[in-house]
Amino acid sequence: MHRKSLTLATTVTLAFGVIFLAACSGGGANPPAQFQAHDIADFSGYSVAVADFNNDGRLDVIANSLGASEVAWYENPTWERHVIIEGVSSVVNQAMADINGDGIPEIAYQSGFAMVAANSMGFNTIAMSQGDPTMPWTTQQIDAFPTSHHVAWADLDGDGELELINALLIGEESVRPAYDQDQSSVFWYGQGDWKRGTVDDEIPGIIHRVRPVKWDPGSRDQLLVASFEGIALYRAIGMGDAMTFEKELISSGHDSEPAPRLGASDVGMGASGSGRIVASVEPWHGNEVVVYTEQDGTWQRRVLFSDIGSGHEIAVLDLNGDGYADIVANDQSRMTTRNPDGTPGVHVFFSPEDPATGEWIYRRIETESAMNGCVGGDMNEDGRPDLICTGGGGKIIWYENLGNEEAETDM
Ligand SMILES: [Ca+2]
Ligand SMILES: [Ca+2]
Ligand SMILES: [Ca+2]
Ligand SMILES: [Ca+2]
User: Of all helices (H) and strands (E), which one includes residue 4?
Assistant: First the structure.
C-alpha cells in the first residue's frame, strides 16, 4: 500500500514528496537510517559512553580500556581529549549521573579488572569534577570486590535518588574456559555510606551486563541482567536498606550448548509500536542477535542473525524515527589470514511493524574497524540519534545519522 502511494509522491517535488511520505506512513516502519562515520580518536576501547561532561548542552564521549592507565573524555565537537584521572589500570566500564546536582555528571568506574578473581582488585570508584571538568577530578573508592565488571545507575526504590549497581563478572571459583563453577552477584549501593547491598548472589557462571530499564510504570527502575542463565528481570520491593528483589526469568537465552557458550552476553529494551521488545546478543561473547516479543504473557525468542564474528554488546533504540526500536550489535572479530571470514564492525537491524514476524532490514554500517560496543546519542542536536562505537579496531567512531534512506518505489 505504501509503495502505490509513493509513485504519486515521486511526481511532485522532493520536499513535498518527503512530507507526503511522512503523512502516508501511518504508523508503518520507516526505511533504514543512513550513517556517516567520523573518527573521534585512535583508541582501542573496551567500553564507550556519552554524557555532557562540561554542561554545554552537547554530549561528549568517554571510552575506557583495559590497557590504558588513565580516564579521559572527548569534548564535542573538537573531540579534544581531557585526561581527568591518572594512575588507574584495567578499567572496564563506567556510568555517569549528576549526583550532586552541579550540572557535571559524576563518573562511576570500575578498575583492577581481571578474568581471574584472585588477580582482580575490582575497584569501584566515583569521580567528581572540581569545577572545571577539563582538569583532574577527585576520586572516592566505594568498594573493592573481585571481578567487578559492569556498573550502572538506577533508582531502584523510586525515591528520586539513584543507587549504584555493580555486577561482578564471575564468582571466585569460576575459571576458564567454562567459567561455570561458581555463582556471581549483582550488588547495589545507596548514596552517602555506599554500603553494599545484594540484588542477587546466586547467578550461575558469568554475568555480562546489567541494564536499568523502566519496565513497570512508576518511579522505580528495574534491572535486566544478562548471564549464563539468560535474561532476568529484577524488581525491587521496599525502600532503602530494606529493599528486597523479585526475579523473573524472561528467557534462558542460548541454552543449546555447554558453558561458556551459554545464556546472553547483553540485553536491552525498547519501545516498539504500542509494545516493547527485548533484544540480546547470545550466547556470552556470542554470534546471535535475538529479539524477544511478548505473546500471551510469555516471551517469544527469535534469532534475527547468527553471523556475528565476535559479539559483545547490544544497543536498542529507534534510529529511523518510526517508533519501532531497532537493534545495534558490535562485532569484535578481525579479518586475518587465520580468520579470513572475520566480520568486524557494526551490524544494524531495522525493525518492521511487527518485530515478531516481519522482515527486519539489515545494514552493516562498519566493515573495517573491530568494535566492542556501541551507544546511542544525538551528538549534533539534529534530533536524530547517532551511534558511538569503540573496540579493538583502534578507533572511537561517531556514526552520524543522516536521516532515512529513500523508500523504494515502483518506478
Ligand atoms: Ca558537552
Ligand atoms: Ca555533579
Ligand atoms: Ca533510590
Ligand atoms: Ca525504528
Answer: helix 2-9
